[in-house]
Write a sequence for this structure.
Protein backbone atom coordinates (compact mmCIF):
# COMPACT_ATOMS: atom_id res chain seq x y z
CA UNK A 1 0.00 0.00 0.00
CA UNK A 2 1.55 3.29 -1.01
CA UNK A 3 1.79 6.11 1.49
CA UNK A 4 -0.72 8.76 0.49
CA UNK A 5 -0.58 10.92 3.57
CA UNK A 6 1.37 10.81 6.78
CA UNK A 7 -1.39 11.90 9.15
CA UNK A 8 -3.16 8.52 9.08
CA UNK A 9 -0.11 6.50 10.07
CA UNK A 10 -0.83 6.71 13.80
CA UNK A 11 -4.21 5.09 13.23
CA UNK A 12 -2.85 2.28 11.12
CA UNK A 13 0.48 0.73 10.21
CA UNK A 14 1.06 0.48 6.49
CA UNK A 15 2.02 -2.89 5.03
CA UNK A 16 3.64 -3.67 1.74
CA UNK A 17 1.49 -5.10 -1.07
CA UNK A 18 0.93 -8.83 -1.54
CA UNK A 19 3.52 -9.16 -4.29
CA UNK A 20 6.23 -8.93 -1.64
CA UNK A 21 4.82 -11.35 0.93
CA UNK A 22 5.88 -14.72 -0.42
CA UNK A 23 9.47 -14.92 0.74
CA UNK A 24 9.42 -17.73 3.28
CA UNK A 25 6.67 -16.30 5.47
CA UNK A 26 3.75 -18.44 6.55
CA UNK A 27 0.60 -18.55 4.44
CA UNK A 28 -1.31 -16.32 6.79
CA UNK A 29 1.17 -13.55 6.10
CA UNK A 30 0.40 -13.73 2.40
CA UNK A 31 -3.29 -13.36 3.24
CA UNK A 32 -2.52 -10.41 5.49
CA UNK A 33 -3.77 -12.16 8.63
CA UNK A 34 -3.89 -9.72 11.52
CA UNK A 35 -2.82 -10.49 15.08
CA UNK A 36 -4.78 -8.37 17.58
CA UNK A 37 -2.78 -6.02 19.75
CA UNK A 38 -3.40 -4.01 22.84
CA UNK A 39 -2.26 -0.40 23.21
CA UNK A 40 0.31 -0.03 25.92
CA UNK A 41 1.36 -3.69 25.90
CA UNK A 42 2.82 -6.47 23.80
CA UNK A 43 1.20 -7.65 20.58
CA UNK A 44 -0.29 -11.06 21.39
CA UNK A 45 -2.81 -13.71 20.43
CA UNK A 46 -4.41 -15.10 17.30
CA UNK A 47 -7.99 -13.88 17.66
CA UNK A 48 -9.94 -11.94 15.08
CA UNK A 49 -10.84 -8.92 17.17
CA UNK A 50 -10.93 -5.49 15.62
CA UNK A 51 -7.73 -3.55 16.12
CA UNK A 52 -6.31 -0.13 15.33
CA UNK A 53 -2.91 -1.27 14.13
CA UNK A 54 -3.34 -3.52 11.12
CA UNK A 55 0.16 -4.73 10.44
CA UNK A 56 0.88 -6.99 13.38
CA UNK A 57 1.63 -10.03 11.23
CA UNK A 58 3.37 -13.22 12.26
CA UNK A 59 6.80 -14.18 10.98
CA UNK A 60 8.49 -17.49 11.47
CA UNK A 61 9.18 -20.85 9.89
CA UNK A 62 11.57 -19.31 7.38
CA UNK A 63 12.79 -22.54 5.83
CA UNK A 64 12.69 -21.03 2.36
CA UNK A 65 15.02 -18.18 3.22
CA UNK A 66 18.39 -18.82 1.60
CA UNK A 67 21.27 -19.26 3.99
CA UNK A 68 23.03 -15.94 4.36
CA UNK A 69 26.39 -15.64 2.64
CA UNK A 70 27.80 -13.69 5.54
CA UNK A 71 27.12 -13.57 9.26
CA UNK A 72 24.97 -10.80 10.67
CA UNK A 73 26.96 -7.60 11.07
CA UNK A 74 26.14 -7.14 14.76
CA UNK A 75 29.14 -6.19 16.85
CA UNK A 76 30.20 -8.55 19.62
CA UNK A 77 29.56 -6.06 22.44
CA UNK A 78 25.95 -5.37 21.41
CA UNK A 79 25.34 -9.08 20.91
CA UNK A 80 26.62 -9.93 24.39
CA UNK A 81 24.64 -7.07 25.96
CA UNK A 82 21.47 -8.24 24.19
CA UNK A 83 21.96 -11.79 25.46
CA UNK A 84 22.55 -10.60 29.01
CA UNK A 85 20.00 -7.79 29.37
CA UNK A 86 17.41 -8.28 26.63
CA UNK A 87 16.21 -5.65 24.20
CA UNK A 88 14.96 -3.07 26.68
CA UNK A 89 18.06 -3.42 28.86
CA UNK A 90 20.47 -2.30 26.15
CA UNK A 91 22.34 0.93 26.80
CA UNK A 92 21.21 3.79 24.54
CA UNK A 93 23.76 6.51 25.37
CA UNK A 94 26.96 6.20 23.31
CA UNK A 95 30.44 6.41 24.86
CA UNK A 96 33.47 8.21 23.41
CA UNK A 97 36.99 7.64 24.74
CA UNK A 98 40.00 9.86 24.09
CA UNK A 99 43.00 7.69 23.23
CA UNK A 100 46.35 8.65 24.72
CA UNK A 101 49.56 7.16 26.14
CA UNK A 102 47.66 5.37 28.90
CA UNK A 103 45.46 3.30 26.58
CA UNK A 104 47.08 3.06 23.13
CA UNK A 105 48.21 -0.57 23.17
CA UNK A 106 46.21 -3.18 21.31
CA UNK A 107 45.29 -4.87 24.58
CA UNK A 108 44.11 -1.64 26.23
CA UNK A 109 42.09 -0.65 23.14
CA UNK A 110 40.42 -4.05 23.15
CA UNK A 111 39.52 -3.65 26.83
CA UNK A 112 37.95 -0.27 26.10
CA UNK A 113 36.01 -1.75 23.17
CA UNK A 114 34.77 -4.58 25.38
CA UNK A 115 33.82 -1.99 27.99
CA UNK A 116 31.46 -0.24 25.59
CA UNK A 117 33.56 2.33 23.73
CA UNK A 118 31.61 3.30 20.60
CA UNK A 119 33.95 6.00 19.27
CA UNK A 120 37.71 6.43 19.74
CA UNK A 121 38.78 10.08 19.76
CA UNK A 122 42.27 11.15 18.70
CA UNK A 123 43.26 14.64 19.84
CA UNK A 124 45.56 16.07 17.17
CA UNK A 125 47.00 18.47 19.76
CA UNK A 126 49.05 15.59 21.08
CA UNK A 127 51.40 12.94 19.67
CA UNK A 128 52.69 12.48 16.13
CA UNK A 129 50.79 11.46 13.02
CA UNK A 130 52.67 8.17 13.01
CA UNK A 131 51.38 7.54 16.54
CA UNK A 132 47.81 8.35 15.46
CA UNK A 133 48.17 6.16 12.36
CA UNK A 134 49.25 3.25 14.53
CA UNK A 135 46.22 3.67 16.83
CA UNK A 136 43.84 3.81 13.84
CA UNK A 137 45.45 0.65 12.46
CA UNK A 138 44.91 -1.13 15.78
CA UNK A 139 41.25 -0.08 15.97
CA UNK A 140 40.63 -1.26 12.41
CA UNK A 141 42.33 -4.54 13.30
CA UNK A 142 40.05 -5.02 16.31
CA UNK A 143 36.97 -4.26 14.21
CA UNK A 144 37.97 -6.73 11.51
CA UNK A 145 39.39 -9.55 13.58
CA UNK A 146 37.43 -9.39 16.84
CA UNK A 147 34.03 -8.22 15.57
CA UNK A 148 33.91 -4.79 17.24
CA UNK A 149 32.29 -1.70 15.76
CA UNK A 150 34.37 1.26 16.99
CA UNK A 151 34.37 4.46 14.97
CA UNK A 152 37.34 6.85 14.82
CA UNK A 153 37.22 10.60 15.39
CA UNK A 154 40.04 13.10 15.04
CA UNK A 155 39.83 16.39 16.90
CA UNK A 156 41.62 19.36 15.32
CA UNK A 157 43.87 21.59 17.37
CA UNK A 158 42.29 24.88 16.32
CA UNK A 159 43.86 28.31 16.19
CA UNK A 160 47.45 28.31 17.49
CA UNK A 161 46.71 31.35 19.64
CA UNK A 162 45.15 29.04 22.22
CA UNK A 163 47.99 26.50 22.61
CA UNK A 164 50.95 26.17 25.00
CA UNK A 165 53.48 23.33 25.35
CA UNK A 166 56.01 22.45 28.07
CA UNK A 167 57.88 20.02 25.79
CA UNK A 168 57.54 16.95 28.00
CA UNK A 169 55.71 13.87 26.67
CA UNK A 170 53.37 13.66 29.67
CA UNK A 171 51.73 16.01 32.15
CA UNK A 172 53.74 18.26 34.49
CA UNK A 173 52.61 19.35 37.96
CA UNK A 174 52.62 23.12 38.53
CA UNK A 175 53.01 23.83 42.25
CA UNK A 176 51.52 26.88 43.91
CA UNK A 177 54.10 29.67 44.31
CA UNK A 178 56.44 28.39 41.57
CA UNK A 179 57.55 30.86 38.86
CA UNK A 180 57.31 29.98 35.16
CA UNK A 181 58.45 31.64 31.94
CA UNK A 182 55.98 31.75 29.04
CA UNK A 183 57.72 32.46 25.74
CA UNK A 184 57.17 32.20 21.97
CA UNK A 185 60.86 31.41 21.39
CA UNK A 186 61.64 28.00 19.94
CA UNK A 187 62.94 25.67 22.63
CA UNK A 188 65.03 22.53 22.45
CA UNK A 189 63.99 19.80 24.82
CA UNK A 190 61.92 20.71 27.87
CA UNK A 191 63.68 23.32 30.04
CA UNK A 192 62.30 23.36 33.60
CA UNK A 193 59.64 25.95 34.45
CA UNK A 194 59.50 27.10 30.82
CA UNK A 195 56.43 27.03 28.56
CA UNK A 196 56.41 27.64 24.83
CA UNK A 197 53.50 29.42 23.15
CA UNK A 198 52.71 28.41 19.58
CA UNK A 199 51.75 31.94 18.49
CA UNK A 200 54.26 34.78 18.50
CA UNK A 201 51.69 37.37 19.47
CA UNK A 202 50.33 35.38 22.39
CA UNK A 203 51.14 38.15 24.90
CA UNK A 204 49.80 41.12 22.90
CA UNK A 205 47.64 43.33 25.11
CA UNK A 206 48.46 41.37 28.27
CA UNK A 207 49.32 43.35 31.40
CA UNK A 208 51.07 42.64 34.69
CA UNK A 209 48.44 41.37 37.12
CA UNK A 210 46.41 39.50 34.50
CA UNK A 211 45.47 35.89 35.23
CA UNK A 212 46.54 33.06 32.90
CA UNK A 213 44.22 30.00 33.12
CA UNK A 214 45.29 26.59 31.77
CA UNK A 215 42.75 24.18 30.25
CA UNK A 216 39.72 25.85 31.77
CA UNK A 217 41.07 25.79 35.32
CA UNK A 218 43.50 22.86 35.54
CA UNK A 219 46.06 25.41 36.82
CA UNK A 220 46.22 29.20 37.15
CA UNK A 221 49.03 31.77 37.03
CA UNK A 222 49.40 35.50 37.62
CA UNK A 223 51.52 37.65 35.29
CA UNK A 224 54.23 39.23 37.46
CA UNK A 225 56.55 40.57 34.74
CA UNK A 226 56.47 41.24 31.01
CA UNK A 227 59.85 41.04 29.23
CA UNK A 228 59.43 41.81 25.54
CA UNK A 229 56.97 39.24 24.24
CA UNK A 230 57.69 36.89 27.15
CA UNK A 231 55.69 36.62 30.35
CA UNK A 232 56.97 35.63 33.77
CA UNK A 233 54.13 34.19 35.84
CA UNK A 234 53.62 32.81 39.35
CA UNK A 235 51.40 29.77 39.89
CA UNK A 236 48.42 30.74 42.05
CA UNK A 237 46.42 27.49 41.74
CA UNK A 238 48.44 24.29 41.44
CA UNK A 239 47.44 21.57 39.03
CA UNK A 240 48.36 19.35 36.10
CA UNK A 241 49.85 21.00 33.01
CA UNK A 242 49.14 18.75 29.99
CA UNK A 243 51.21 18.76 26.80
CA UNK A 244 49.86 21.25 24.26
CA UNK A 245 47.43 22.74 26.74
CA UNK A 246 44.92 25.48 25.94
CA UNK A 247 44.98 28.75 27.82
CA UNK A 248 43.15 32.06 28.29
CA UNK A 249 43.78 35.40 29.98
CA UNK A 250 41.49 37.12 32.48
CA UNK A 251 41.46 40.68 33.85
CA UNK A 252 39.22 41.88 36.68
CA UNK A 253 37.04 38.79 36.32
CA UNK A 254 36.51 39.21 32.57
CA UNK A 255 37.98 37.31 29.66
CA UNK A 256 40.64 39.27 27.75
CA UNK A 257 39.63 39.38 24.06
CA UNK A 258 42.17 37.82 21.72
CA UNK A 259 42.98 38.20 18.02
CA UNK A 260 39.83 36.82 16.34
CA UNK A 261 41.17 37.33 12.81
CA UNK A 262 43.14 34.10 12.91
CA UNK A 263 41.39 31.36 10.88
CA UNK A 264 39.54 28.57 12.69
CA UNK A 265 41.46 26.02 10.62
CA UNK A 266 45.24 26.50 10.74
CA UNK A 267 47.77 25.02 8.31
CA UNK A 268 48.37 22.24 10.81
CA UNK A 269 44.64 21.57 11.01
CA UNK A 270 44.40 21.16 7.23
CA UNK A 271 47.36 18.80 7.28
CA UNK A 272 45.70 16.81 10.08
CA UNK A 273 42.42 16.72 8.14
CA UNK A 274 44.22 15.44 5.05
CA UNK A 275 45.79 12.78 7.25
CA UNK A 276 42.39 11.82 8.66
CA UNK A 277 40.83 11.54 5.21
CA UNK A 278 43.67 9.36 3.96
CA UNK A 279 43.26 7.10 7.02
CA UNK A 280 39.49 6.86 6.53
CA UNK A 281 38.37 8.36 9.85
CA UNK A 282 34.63 8.54 10.49
CA UNK A 283 34.39 11.92 12.26
CA UNK A 284 36.34 15.19 12.23
CA UNK A 285 35.69 17.53 15.16
CA UNK A 286 36.53 21.21 14.58
CA UNK A 287 37.87 23.23 17.51
CA UNK A 288 36.95 26.84 18.29
CA UNK A 289 34.16 27.13 15.73
CA UNK A 290 32.70 30.63 16.03
CA UNK A 291 30.33 30.48 13.04
CA UNK A 292 29.16 28.08 10.35
CA UNK A 293 31.68 29.11 7.65
CA UNK A 294 34.57 26.76 8.59
CA UNK A 295 32.11 23.86 8.90
CA UNK A 296 30.77 24.50 5.40
CA UNK A 297 34.31 24.97 4.10
CA UNK A 298 35.41 21.60 5.45
CA UNK A 299 32.28 19.80 4.23
CA UNK A 300 32.82 21.21 0.74
CA UNK A 301 36.42 20.02 0.87
CA UNK A 302 35.34 16.53 1.91
CA UNK A 303 32.76 16.47 -0.88
CA UNK A 304 35.42 17.37 -3.44
CA UNK A 305 37.63 14.63 -1.98
CA UNK A 306 34.74 12.15 -2.34
CA UNK A 307 34.86 11.62 1.42
CA UNK A 308 31.17 12.25 2.03
CA UNK A 309 31.01 9.44 4.58
CA UNK A 310 33.23 11.47 6.94
CA UNK A 311 31.01 13.48 9.31
CA UNK A 312 31.95 16.96 10.53
CA UNK A 313 31.32 17.84 14.19
CA UNK A 314 31.55 21.38 15.53
CA UNK A 315 32.87 21.97 19.04
CA UNK A 316 30.91 24.57 20.99
CA UNK A 317 33.48 26.12 23.32
CA UNK A 318 33.21 29.90 22.98
CA UNK A 319 30.76 32.70 23.58
CA UNK A 320 30.67 33.42 19.84
CA UNK A 321 29.64 29.83 19.07
CA UNK A 322 26.74 30.12 21.53
CA UNK A 323 25.56 33.31 19.87
CA UNK A 324 25.46 31.52 16.49
CA UNK A 325 24.48 28.12 17.81
CA UNK A 326 21.60 27.31 15.47
CA UNK A 327 23.48 28.13 12.28
CA UNK A 328 26.45 26.05 13.46
CA UNK A 329 24.21 23.10 14.35
CA UNK A 330 22.42 23.31 11.01
CA UNK A 331 25.68 23.34 9.03
CA UNK A 332 27.36 20.52 10.96
CA UNK A 333 26.73 16.78 11.26
CA UNK A 334 26.86 16.92 15.05
CA UNK A 335 27.99 18.97 18.06
CA UNK A 336 30.45 18.48 20.89
CA UNK A 337 29.78 20.49 24.04
CA UNK A 338 33.36 21.24 25.15
CA UNK A 339 32.47 22.32 28.65
CA UNK A 340 36.04 22.90 29.82
CA UNK A 341 36.82 25.68 27.35
CA UNK A 342 33.22 26.89 27.33
CA UNK A 343 33.36 27.25 31.11
CA UNK A 344 36.25 29.69 30.68
CA UNK A 345 34.11 32.08 28.65
CA UNK A 346 30.79 31.96 30.49
CA UNK A 347 30.02 31.93 34.24
CA UNK A 348 30.16 28.52 35.91
CA UNK A 349 26.53 28.69 37.00
CA UNK A 350 25.36 28.97 33.39
CA UNK A 351 27.00 25.72 32.23
CA UNK A 352 24.11 23.37 33.19
CA UNK A 353 21.42 25.40 31.44
CA UNK A 354 23.62 26.06 28.39
CA UNK A 355 24.39 22.34 28.12
CA UNK A 356 20.68 21.49 28.25
CA UNK A 357 19.83 24.14 25.66
CA UNK A 358 22.51 22.88 23.24
CA UNK A 359 21.24 19.32 23.69
CA UNK A 360 17.65 20.42 23.03
CA UNK A 361 18.56 22.37 19.89
CA UNK A 362 20.56 19.43 18.52
CA UNK A 363 17.66 17.05 19.07
CA UNK A 364 15.21 19.40 17.40
CA UNK A 365 17.52 19.72 14.39
CA UNK A 366 18.30 15.98 14.37
CA UNK A 367 22.04 16.28 15.01
CA UNK A 368 23.88 14.06 17.51
CA UNK A 369 25.38 15.85 20.53
CA UNK A 370 28.33 14.79 22.69
CA UNK A 371 28.69 16.09 26.23
CA UNK A 372 32.42 16.32 26.88
CA UNK A 373 35.06 17.58 29.33
CA UNK A 374 35.55 16.85 33.01
CA UNK A 375 32.80 14.25 33.36
CA UNK A 376 34.92 12.17 35.74
CA UNK A 377 37.88 14.52 36.05
CA UNK A 378 38.98 13.26 39.47
CA UNK A 379 39.66 9.84 37.93
CA UNK A 380 42.67 11.29 36.12
CA UNK A 381 44.37 10.75 39.48
CA UNK A 382 42.03 8.71 41.69
CA UNK A 383 40.35 5.30 41.25
CA UNK A 384 36.85 6.46 42.20
CA UNK A 385 34.82 9.46 41.01
CA UNK A 386 33.17 12.00 43.25
CA UNK A 387 29.43 11.58 43.81
CA UNK A 388 28.94 14.98 42.18
CA UNK A 389 30.64 13.72 39.02
CA UNK A 390 28.32 10.71 38.85
CA UNK A 391 25.35 13.05 39.29
CA UNK A 392 26.72 15.20 36.45
CA UNK A 393 26.94 12.16 34.17
CA UNK A 394 23.40 11.15 35.08
CA UNK A 395 22.12 14.63 34.34
CA UNK A 396 23.61 14.54 30.84
CA UNK A 397 21.88 11.19 30.28
CA UNK A 398 18.60 12.60 31.63
CA UNK A 399 18.89 15.40 29.09
CA UNK A 400 19.07 12.69 26.38
CA UNK A 401 22.54 13.59 25.09
CA UNK A 402 23.57 11.18 22.35
CA UNK A 403 27.02 10.51 23.78
CA UNK A 404 29.31 11.07 26.76
CA UNK A 405 33.04 11.56 26.34
CA UNK A 406 36.09 10.78 28.45
CA UNK A 407 39.12 13.03 27.91
CA UNK A 408 42.11 12.87 30.25
CA UNK A 409 40.37 10.14 32.27
CA UNK A 410 41.14 7.62 29.51
CA UNK A 411 44.02 9.34 27.67
CA UNK A 412 46.45 9.83 30.55
CA UNK A 413 44.74 8.49 33.67
CA UNK A 414 45.59 5.07 35.10
CA UNK A 415 41.90 4.21 35.61
CA UNK A 416 40.50 4.72 32.11
CA UNK A 417 38.76 1.34 31.89
CA UNK A 418 37.15 1.86 35.28
CA UNK A 419 36.03 5.36 34.29
CA UNK A 420 34.41 3.89 31.17
CA UNK A 421 32.61 1.25 33.25
CA UNK A 422 31.25 3.99 35.52
CA UNK A 423 29.91 5.89 32.51
CA UNK A 424 28.34 2.67 31.26
CA UNK A 425 26.69 1.82 34.59
CA UNK A 426 25.51 5.36 35.34
CA UNK A 427 24.00 5.89 31.89
CA UNK A 428 22.26 2.48 31.87
CA UNK A 429 20.77 3.09 35.31
CA UNK A 430 19.49 6.57 34.44
CA UNK A 431 17.97 5.32 31.18
CA UNK A 432 16.16 2.55 33.06
CA UNK A 433 14.88 4.98 35.68
CA UNK A 434 13.63 7.41 33.02
CA UNK A 435 11.73 4.60 31.28
CA UNK A 436 10.28 3.19 34.53
CA UNK A 437 9.12 6.64 35.59
CA UNK A 438 7.73 7.27 32.11
CA UNK A 439 9.80 10.43 31.92
CA UNK A 440 9.81 10.57 28.14
CA UNK A 441 11.34 13.87 27.08
CA UNK A 442 8.84 16.16 25.39
CA UNK A 443 10.39 17.29 22.14
CA UNK A 444 9.07 20.26 20.23
CA UNK A 445 8.42 18.71 16.84
CA UNK A 446 10.25 21.16 14.66
CA UNK A 447 9.62 20.23 11.04
CA UNK A 448 12.87 19.38 9.29
CA UNK A 449 11.80 18.10 5.88
CA UNK A 450 11.16 20.46 2.98
CA UNK A 451 10.18 18.09 0.19
CA UNK A 452 7.08 15.91 0.52
CA UNK A 453 9.05 12.61 0.71
CA UNK A 454 11.24 14.03 3.49
CA UNK A 455 8.21 15.26 5.40
CA UNK A 456 6.51 11.87 5.03
CA UNK A 457 9.64 10.10 6.30
CA UNK A 458 9.79 12.47 9.27
CA UNK A 459 6.14 11.90 10.17
CA UNK A 460 6.53 8.14 9.79
CA UNK A 461 9.40 8.15 12.29
CA UNK A 462 7.58 10.43 14.75
CA UNK A 463 4.51 8.19 14.70
CA UNK A 464 6.52 4.97 14.66
CA UNK A 465 8.21 5.84 17.95
CA UNK A 466 4.91 6.75 19.58
CA UNK A 467 3.43 3.47 18.37
CA UNK A 468 6.47 1.48 19.49
CA UNK A 469 6.24 2.94 23.00
CA UNK A 470 2.48 2.42 23.26
CA UNK A 471 2.52 -1.13 21.87
CA UNK A 472 5.51 -2.17 23.95
CA UNK A 473 7.44 -3.63 21.01
CA UNK A 474 10.78 -5.22 21.76
CA UNK A 475 12.83 -3.59 19.00
CA UNK A 476 12.63 -1.30 15.99
CA UNK A 477 14.22 -2.55 12.75
CA UNK A 478 15.08 0.16 10.22
CA UNK A 479 16.54 -0.53 6.78
CA UNK A 480 18.53 2.47 5.62
CA UNK A 481 21.11 3.50 3.06
CA UNK A 482 22.32 6.84 4.42
CA UNK A 483 20.98 6.59 7.98
CA UNK A 484 18.35 9.31 7.69
CA UNK A 485 15.36 7.40 9.06
CA UNK A 486 17.49 5.76 11.73
CA UNK A 487 18.52 9.20 12.98
CA UNK A 488 14.91 10.45 12.82
CA UNK A 489 13.83 7.52 14.96
CA UNK A 490 16.69 8.18 17.38
CA UNK A 491 15.68 11.83 17.61
CA UNK A 492 12.43 10.76 19.31
CA UNK A 493 14.27 8.65 21.92
CA UNK A 494 12.11 5.48 21.80
CA UNK A 495 12.02 2.93 24.64
CA UNK A 496 13.06 -0.06 22.46
CA UNK A 497 16.49 -0.13 20.77
CA UNK A 498 16.82 0.73 17.08
CA UNK A 499 18.55 -1.90 14.93
CA UNK A 500 19.72 -0.08 11.79
CA UNK A 501 20.50 -2.42 8.88
CA UNK A 502 22.62 -0.85 6.15
CA UNK A 503 24.80 -2.03 3.29
CA UNK A 504 27.03 1.08 3.54
CA UNK A 505 29.91 0.85 6.03
CA UNK A 506 30.27 4.64 6.24
CA UNK A 507 26.63 4.88 7.34
CA UNK A 508 27.17 2.12 9.88
CA UNK A 509 30.13 3.89 11.49
CA UNK A 510 28.34 7.26 11.51
CA UNK A 511 25.30 5.76 13.26
CA UNK A 512 27.63 4.67 16.06
CA UNK A 513 27.15 8.15 17.52
CA UNK A 514 23.33 8.13 17.44
CA UNK A 515 21.40 7.54 20.67
CA UNK A 516 19.84 4.09 20.87
CA UNK A 517 20.97 2.93 17.42
CA UNK A 518 22.73 -0.42 16.95
CA UNK A 519 24.10 -0.34 13.37
CA UNK A 520 24.49 -3.59 11.42
CA UNK A 521 26.28 -4.06 8.12
CA UNK A 522 24.31 -6.43 5.84
CA UNK A 523 23.59 -6.84 2.15
CA UNK A 524 20.19 -5.30 1.36
CA UNK A 525 17.97 -5.49 -1.69
CA UNK A 526 16.69 -2.21 -3.13
CA UNK A 527 13.62 -3.94 -4.57
CA UNK A 528 12.72 -6.76 -2.20
CA UNK A 529 11.78 -5.38 1.20
CA UNK A 530 10.20 -8.61 2.47
CA UNK A 531 13.36 -10.52 1.60
CA UNK A 532 15.38 -7.97 3.61
CA UNK A 533 13.09 -8.47 6.59
CA UNK A 534 13.03 -12.26 6.33
CA UNK A 535 16.79 -12.56 5.93
CA UNK A 536 17.73 -10.24 8.80
CA UNK A 537 15.15 -11.67 11.18
CA UNK A 538 16.38 -15.19 10.46
CA UNK A 539 20.00 -14.12 10.98
CA UNK A 540 19.15 -12.80 14.42
CA UNK A 541 17.00 -15.84 15.23
CA UNK A 542 19.87 -18.18 14.37
CA UNK A 543 22.00 -16.44 16.97
CA UNK A 544 19.29 -17.00 19.55
CA UNK A 545 18.63 -13.28 19.98
CA UNK A 546 14.98 -13.39 18.84
CA UNK A 547 12.49 -15.78 20.40
CA UNK A 548 8.84 -16.62 19.76
CA UNK A 549 6.57 -13.86 20.98
CA UNK A 550 9.06 -11.05 20.41
CA UNK A 551 7.54 -8.11 18.58
CA UNK A 552 9.48 -5.91 16.18
CA UNK A 553 8.50 -2.75 14.34
CA UNK A 554 9.89 -2.41 10.81
CA UNK A 555 10.64 0.91 9.08
CA UNK A 556 12.59 1.55 5.87
CA UNK A 557 13.94 4.41 3.76
CA UNK A 558 15.40 2.30 0.94
CA UNK A 559 14.50 3.73 -2.46
CA UNK A 560 13.15 1.19 -4.98
CA UNK A 561 15.07 1.05 -8.25
CA UNK A 562 12.05 0.58 -10.50
CA UNK A 563 8.49 1.84 -10.50
CA UNK A 564 6.85 -1.53 -9.84
CA UNK A 565 8.67 -2.03 -6.55
CA UNK A 566 6.88 -2.09 -3.23
CA UNK A 567 6.28 1.27 -1.53
CA UNK A 568 9.04 1.36 1.06
CA UNK A 569 8.05 4.29 3.27
CA UNK A 570 6.00 2.19 5.63
CA UNK A 571 5.58 0.85 9.14
CA UNK A 572 5.06 -2.83 9.89
CA UNK A 573 4.63 -4.55 13.24
CA UNK A 574 5.61 -8.23 13.24
CA UNK A 575 5.46 -10.98 15.85
CA UNK A 576 8.03 -13.77 15.86
CA UNK A 577 6.48 -17.25 16.07
Amino acid sequence: MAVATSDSILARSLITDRRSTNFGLKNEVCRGKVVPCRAGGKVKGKGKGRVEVKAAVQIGGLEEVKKAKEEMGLDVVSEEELREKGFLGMRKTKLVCTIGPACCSLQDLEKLALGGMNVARLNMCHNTRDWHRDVIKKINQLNEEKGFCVSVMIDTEGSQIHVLDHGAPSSVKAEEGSTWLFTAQKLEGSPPFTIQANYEGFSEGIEVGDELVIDGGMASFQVIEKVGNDLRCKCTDSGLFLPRAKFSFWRNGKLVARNSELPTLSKKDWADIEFGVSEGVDFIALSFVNDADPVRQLKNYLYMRSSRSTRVLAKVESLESLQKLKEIVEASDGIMVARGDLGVEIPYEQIPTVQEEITRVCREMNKPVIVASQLLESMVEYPTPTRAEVADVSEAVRQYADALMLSGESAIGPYGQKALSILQMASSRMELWSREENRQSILHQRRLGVSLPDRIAEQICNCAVEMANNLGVDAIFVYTKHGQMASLLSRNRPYPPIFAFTSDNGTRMALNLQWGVIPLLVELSDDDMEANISTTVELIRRKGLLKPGDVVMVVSDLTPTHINSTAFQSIQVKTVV
